[in-house]
TrEMBL record, chain A:
PANTHER family: ALIPHATIC SULFONATES IMPORT ATP-BINDING PROTEIN SSUB (PTHR42788:SF13), TAURINE IMPORT ATP-BINDING PROTEIN-RELATED (PTHR42788). Keywords: ATP-binding, Nucleotide-binding, Transport. The lineage of its organism: Bacteria, Bacillati, Bacillota, Bacilli, Bacillales. InterPro entries: AAA+_ATPase (IPR003593), ABC_transporter-like_ATP-bd (IPR003439), ABC_transporter-like_CS (IPR017871), ABC_transporter_ATP-bind (IPR050166), P-loop_NTPase (IPR027417). PROSITE patterns: ABC_TRANSPORTER_1 (PS00211), ABC_TRANSPORTER_2 (PS50893). This is ABC transporter ATP-binding protein. Residues 6-234 form the ABC transporter domain. GO terms for molecular function: ATP binding; ATP hydrolysis activity.
UniProtKB/TrEMBL annotation, chain B:
Belongs to the binding-protein-dependent transport system permease family. The keyword Glycoprotein does not apply. GO terms for cellular component: plasma membrane. Residues 1-22 are annotated as: Disordered. Coiled coil: none annotated. It is found in: Cell membrane. This is ABC transporter permease. The keyword Iron does not apply.
Length: 259, 278
């Protein structure tokens, strides 16, 4: 774990709807060190996606400061990799061309790196396949490779495995941890699944909704690979769960799917 | 049934060659089935004509029409007129479709261009196409210009409309991806908007081509001194119905060939589409 990479200070954001102002985030304070794996968890409407989109530079118009490597975030760019909930591949490009995107595969350097990434996300043999031929998990791995090719300082993942079935999801979590271990990429991973948050994160940030505020930050000092059935894992799980129970019952009730 | 099963069983061992042969065989059988009805009609037509049960003047038999075709071809009349017609069609199609594509993309990309241009274009589109033919002949003469411009006018609108719709239909989620990947405006246009618009453009091309042939026939019949349409009008004046049939046959064939070319291009270019699984 290195120096502080991402610094969020007094971050607030509100949206203007037709009649009223909705406070999405209030007074968020968060430091992320280089090489950390931070999972952000909270019920729907807690502003966790908004937080991630602000860091990515996709959402603007906030109060407070957000700096990456000391630079205030001006807009989206390749130094901040973003994985959406859906893979969002270009349907007219093959797997390898999707990963390369605007970079030319005719460059031997790009070609070599794309090959390595295809290996890393375990998609060998699918280089020439079109997105329509891929399963959801495979497509999401392509989008992860696409972000990694650009050597981002930080990888932002917005419920990337939310649409996958339980088995695929477990497999994807292992693939992601493998990438993290090998590349040391700093990750912020948004989820509403407690198991996922505890399994992946070296630190868990719990948000509460209306307005979105940080409820707790929990260091998960469990060695990887983690065993979901172990007592230590379950203890962390209960710790997160009990934080949730302190959050207003009403705002939580509608989206308890992850528990 | 048993033959088919035997073939299927042989596939894994005999490999690709056998599978290709099977595919060709299936295509041939498909073609033969499709040919039954037209062939029957031709034969009945010929027999009825031979027995003089139908008027040889109104319905010259297929053999007479074929004779007429050969004669026209050998005399060079058909060649000359055919090439004139082809030239007009492709010049008009290129001009109209090209402009329609360019303007459709432009108006699709720019809201202010849409505000300025779209209502005018839509109004012009509502002018019945055929009704201005004779005006075009008056304005631009009976030569190539009036035909090319009429065809261009017809070809313009499908491409304008479909490329416009294509641009507006580009998935906003993919736009976000290009922002995250740091694409410039130019890269967004070339690597996202254009490929995403391609299915619409190809649809527009097909419609435009169909309009091109219809426009050609009308323009050449209303006032021309050459071309397939002129040949037919000339023959009609002489009650030379076999030549009229030759003209109809050629127009049908040309339209079919160009349509098939676009379909072929579509198969190649849009192989990535979900709906193109065969």
């Amino acid at each position: 774990m290195g120096a502080t990479l991402l610094e969020i200070r007094e971050l607030s954001k509100s949206f203007q709807t037709d009649s009223k102002t909705v406070q999405a985030l209030r007074q968020i304070e968060l430091d992320v060190k280089a090489g950390e794996f931070v999972t952000v968890i909270g019920p729907s409407g807690c502003g966790k996606s908004t937080l991630l989109r602000i860091v990515a530079g996709l959402d603007t118009g906030y109060q407070g400061s957000v700096t990456l490597d000391g630079q205030s975030i001006a807009g989206p760019g390749i130094d901040k990799g973003f994985i959406f909930q859906e893979p969002r591949l270009f349907p007219w490009l093959t797997v390898e061309k999707n990963i390369a995107a605007d970079l030319s595969l005719r460059s031997p350097e790009v070609k070599r790196r794309v090959g390595e990434l295809i290996e890393l996300v375990r998609l060998n043999g699918f280089e020439k396949a079109y997105p329509k031929e891929l399963s959801g998990g495979m497509a999401q791995r392509v989008s992860i490779a696409r972000a990694l090719l650009r050597n981002p300082k930080i990888l932002l993942l917005d419920e990337p495995f939310g649409a996958l079935d339980a088995f695929t999801r477990a497999h994807m979590q292992e693939v992601l941890l493998d990438i993290w271990k090998r590349n040391g990429t700093t990750m912020i991973f948004v989820t509403h699944d407690i198991d996922e948050a505890v399994f992946l994160g070296s630190r868990i940030v719990i948000l509460k909704p209306r307005p979105g505020e940080i409820r707790a930050k929990i260091n998960v000092d469990l060695p990887y690979p983690r065993k979901k059935a172990s007592a230590a894992f379950q203890n962390f799980r209960y710790e997160v769960l009990s934080e949730f129970e302190k959050i207003d019952e009403l705002s939580w009730g509608e989206s308890g799917a992850g528990i | 049934m048993s033959i088919r099963q035997a073939n299927a069983a042989a596939v894994p061992t005999a490999g690709r060659k056998r599978r290709k042969a099977e595919k060709t065989r299936r295509k041939l059988s498909h073609f033969l089935w499709g040919a039954i009805l037209p062939a029957t009609i031709l034969i009945v037509w010929q027999v009825l004509g031979d027995r003089e049960l139908i008027s040889p003047l109104l319905f010259p038999t297929p053999l007479v029409i074929a004779d007429s075709f050969v004669w026209l071809w050998n005399s060079g009349t058909l060649n000359d007129n055919l090439f004139v017609s082809l030239y007009r069609t492709f010049a008009g199609f290129g001009l109209g479709a090209g402009l329609g594509l360019a303007l459709g993309l432009f108006v699709g990309l720019s809201r202010s261009a849409e505000k300025l241009l779209d209502s005018t274009v839509q109004m012009i589109r509502m002018i019945p196409h055929i009704s201005v033919t004779f005006l075009f002949v008056l304005w631009f003469g009976i030569g190539d210009t009036s035909k090319i411009l009429l065809i261009a006018k017809g070809c313009f609108f499908p491409l304008y409309i479909y490329s416009f719709l294509g641009v507006r239909g580009v998935d906003n989620k993919l736009f976000e991806v290009t922002r995250v990947l740091g694409y410039s405006r130019f890269k967004q246009l070339v690597r996202l908007v254009l490929p995403a618009t391609l299915p619409n453009v190809i649809l527009g091309l097909r419609l435009s081509l169909a309009i091109a042939w219809v426009s050609l026939v009308v323009a050449e019949m209303m006032g021309a001194s050459s071309g397939l349409g002129f040949l037919m009008m000339d023959a009609r004046a002489m009650s030379d119905t076999p030549t009229v049939f030759v003209g109809i046959f050629l127009f049908t064939l040309l339209a079919k060939i160009t349509d098939s070319l676009v379909l072929f291009a579509e198969r190649r270019l849009l192989a990535w589409r979900d709906s193109f699984e065969r």
